[in-house]
Amino acid sequence: MAVLKNLNGQLIRDSDRINGLLQIWRSRLHSLKESHHAGLLSDTAKLDRWRNSPGLEVSTWGQRLLQDLALWSEEAWCEPLTIQPGSPRLLSFWEQQHHSHFHSGPEIIMILRGNCTYSLEVAQHGTLELWLEPGDVLQIGSFLSHRLNLGPLLELQAVRCFTSQDGWISHQGSKISQPYP
């Protein structure tokens, strides 16, 4: 069982619930099987659904992803994210996430409620738009530029996980800013 911490290094109190969610994810792992997306998503970004959907098969990448989570040192840096209409955080969220950015490490987002679109800037193929709904899990590779747009209801509840405490920091442009010594 992973020890889940928030971005400030504090233990997440409902880690049992999140670990339960990961157990559900592990037991119902499926991957999107479409020839168009298969090549684009192979190494840069991966989409998974735990809902029962026809035409989906158990995925080996999802099993590797869970192993990767365990190998991150048994600590996952997680950020619970709740956005809803009228939320004071809605404007700051929009300003941060609406612009293309990347992270120095991989990002995993699990959608719990609401919906959103992730735009992934896949170098040779332009931009790939992924519509995410409750039950969807997306892994975004290191240094892959992306942006998140909320769905029409402006509501989203999700959990974002990163490999390190500073992995969540978003960067714009082509260089990672250097911290002060």
TrEMBL record:
Q: Which InterPro entries does the record associate with it?
A: ARD, RmlC-like_jellyroll, RmlC_Cupin_sf
Organism placement in taxonomy:
Bacteria, Bacillati, Cyanobacteriota, Cyanophyceae, Synechococcales
Q: Which Gene3D superfamilies match?
A: Jelly Rolls (2.60.120.10)
The name on file for this protein is Cupin domain-containing protein
Any one GO MF annotation of this record: acireductone dioxygenase [iron(II)-requiring] activity
* Pfam families in alphabetical order: ARD
